[in-house]
């Protein structure tokens, strides 16, 4: 049966009055206007607002930003980030809410994604991650700044390459910004700024992406070319710092390149390691997998559980991360690092008792989940940084006979719609 297509509509720029409903994945509230769904950012559930449509590709829905609040929620506060908000940078999109409201907002999204994509009805309370200020600021240890066409550093506007040349986002300590606006940087470059475990600052200038001729085209092919260029390796120049960032979890130290991956929230690595340790429960002498293992933070936890007679295999696609992890865990002979893509390496790995995986934002996906399930682990601990991809992976595990035995969610990105989920799967 053919569905009747929604008539072509373009409300771009239109100002509408709506009452905001439930939170949606991505930080918006759901509203309805003249039979269409409108995803409205910078509001709170229950508010009556005037919103301006910012994007409309036709069909049954469009996107808008709050312009004026006619009836405010009691959870609305003065925005803690001066450069976010409608038309501003894409950083702190929930900073107009109390911290408690932020957690209810993101928790509702997690619950909905678990129900809709994972087929699981579960109450979820988003928990605090220690290490930031009580108002949802000063939690971040590293930022990636953009440089505009005249050499000023700043943050990109929401869904745009345009740069807001103001170093005022309060996610990170103001010390991170000192002196950066006083010099002219290479236009189109990026700056990686890190405050390490001892408070030392590291600044790296990353050269602009090499834009091939195809990247100048408009449309999907041009966008794909630009993404490929942005993700390709680029020359890096250490401007400040040693080029080796110090990080700690417990008594163990890691030294990694400033552009290498480490959890952005200063308390996240320790918090997640604690949960992984509690849930993995690897036996002495057992084999455990640490997939998408990075520099081996979770591998260190698993190594303690399996002991010298056990075996931990950490698989990571970044050669730099593997090298840094091998250096940090050189004293743990039971840990073996493998460099390669997870989906290609799994068939070569010994059968595991426990699997821990921390995939990128897109999630593990069908092939990896199937391969992990086929390996027959007793327990799986899955870390997900996007509630939608996490919900999809939950559904995939359930298709293979694993059930979500427990789940926790963490406010690892205060003042934003992002939330981290950790799930324990057993069968």
From TrEMBL:
<feature type="active site">
    <location>
        <position position="385"/>
    </location>
</feature>
<protein>
    <submittedName>
        <fullName>(Uracil-5)-methyltransferase</fullName>
        <ecNumber>2.1.1.-</ecNumber>
    </submittedName>
</protein>
<keyword id="KW-0489">Methyltransferase</keyword>
<keyword id="KW-0949">S-adenosyl-L-methionine</keyword>
<feature type="binding site">
    <location>
        <position position="358"/>
    </location>
    <ligand>
        <name>S-adenosyl-L-methionine</name>
    </ligand>
</feature>
<comment type="similarity">
    <text>Belongs to the class I-like SAM-binding methyltransferase superfamily. RNA M5U methyltransferase family.</text>
</comment>
<dbReference type="Pfam" id="PF05958">
    <property type="entry name" value="tRNA_U5-meth_tr"/>
</dbReference>
<keyword id="KW-0808">Transferase</keyword>
<feature type="binding site">
    <location>
        <position position="292"/>
    </location>
    <ligand>
        <name>S-adenosyl-L-methionine</name>
    </ligand>
</feature>
<dbReference type="InterPro" id="IPR029063">
    <property type="entry name" value="SAM-dependent_MTases_sf"/>
</dbReference>
<feature type="region of interest" description="Disordered">
    <location>
        <begin position="214"/>
        <end position="234"/>
    </location>
</feature>
<dbReference type="InterPro" id="IPR010280">
    <property type="entry name" value="U5_MeTrfase_fam"/>
</dbReference>
<dbReference type="InterPro" id="IPR002792">
    <property type="entry name" value="TRAM_dom"/>
</dbReference>
<dbReference type="GO" id="GO:0070475">
    <property type="term" value="P:rRNA base methylation"/>
</dbReference>
<feature type="active site" description="Nucleophile">
    <location>
        <position position="385"/>
    </location>
</feature>
<dbReference type="GO" id="GO:0070041">
    <property type="term" value="F:rRNA (uridine-C5-)-methyltransferase activity"/>
</dbReference>
<feature type="binding site">
    <location>
        <position position="316"/>
    </location>
    <ligand>
        <name>S-adenosyl-L-methionine</name>
    </ligand>
</feature>
<dbReference type="Pfam" id="PF01938">
    <property type="entry name" value="TRAM"/>
</dbReference>
<feature type="domain" description="TRAM">
    <location>
        <begin position="9"/>
        <end position="68"/>
    </location>
</feature>
<feature type="binding site">
    <location>
        <position position="263"/>
    </location>
    <ligand>
        <name>S-adenosyl-L-methionine</name>
    </ligand>
</feature>
<dbReference type="InterPro" id="IPR012340">
    <property type="entry name" value="NA-bd_OB-fold"/>
</dbReference>
<dbReference type="InterPro" id="IPR030390">
    <property type="entry name" value="MeTrfase_TrmA_AS"/>
</dbReference>
């Amino acid at each position: 049966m053919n569905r009747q297509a929604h008539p072509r509509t373009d409300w771009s720029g239109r100002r509408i009055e709506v009452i905001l409903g439930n939170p949606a994945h991505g930080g918006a509230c759901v509203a309805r206007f003249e039979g269409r769904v409108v995803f409205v950012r910078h509001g709170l559930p229950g508010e009556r607002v005037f919103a301006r449509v910012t994007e409309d590709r036709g069909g049954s829905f469009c996107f808008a930003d709050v312009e004026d609040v006619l009836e405010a929620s009691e959870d609305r506060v003065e925005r803690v980030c001066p450069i976010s908000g409608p038309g501003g940078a894409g950083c702190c999109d929930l900073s107009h809410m109390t911290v408690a409201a932020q957690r209810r907002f993101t928790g509702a999204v997690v619950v909905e994604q678990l129900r809709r994509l994972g087929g699981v009805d579960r109450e979820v309370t988003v928990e605090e991650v220690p290490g930031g200020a009580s108002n949802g600021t000063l939690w971040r240890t590293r930022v990636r700044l953009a440089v505009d066409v005249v050499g000023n550093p700043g943050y990109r506007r929401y869904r745009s390459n345009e740069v807001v040349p103001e170093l005022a986002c309060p996610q990170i300590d103001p010390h991170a910004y000192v002196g950066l606006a006083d010099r002219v940087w290479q236009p189109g470059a990026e700056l990686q700024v890190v405050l390490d475990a001892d408070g030392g600052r590291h600044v790296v200038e990353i050269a602009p992406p090499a834009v091939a001729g195809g990247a100048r085209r408009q449309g999907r092919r041009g966008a794909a070319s630009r993404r490929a260029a942005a993700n390709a390796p680029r020359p890096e120049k250490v401007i400040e710092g040693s080029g080796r960032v110090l990080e700690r979890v417990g008594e163990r130290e890691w030294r990694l390149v400033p552009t290498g991956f480490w959890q952005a929230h200063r308390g996240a690595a320790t918090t997640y390691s604690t949960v992984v340790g509690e849930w993995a429960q690897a036996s002495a002498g057992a084999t455990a997998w640490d997939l998408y293992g990075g520099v081996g933070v979770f591998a260190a936890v698993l190594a303690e559980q399996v002991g010298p007679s056990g075996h931990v295999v950490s698989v990571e696609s970044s050669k730099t991360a593997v090298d840094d992890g091998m250096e940090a865990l050189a004293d743990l002979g039971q840990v073996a690092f493998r460099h390669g893509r997870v989906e290609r390496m799994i068939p070569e790995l010994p059968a595991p008792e426990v699997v821990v995986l921390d995939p990128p934002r897109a999630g593990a996906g069908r092939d990896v989940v199937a391969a992990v399930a086929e390996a027959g682990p007793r327990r799986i601990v899955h870390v997900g940084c996007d509630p939608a991809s996490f919900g999809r992976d939950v559904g995939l595990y359930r298709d293979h006979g694993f059930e979500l035995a427990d789940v926790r969610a963490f406010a690892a990105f205060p003042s934003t719609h992002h939330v981290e989920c950790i799930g324990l799967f057993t069968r």
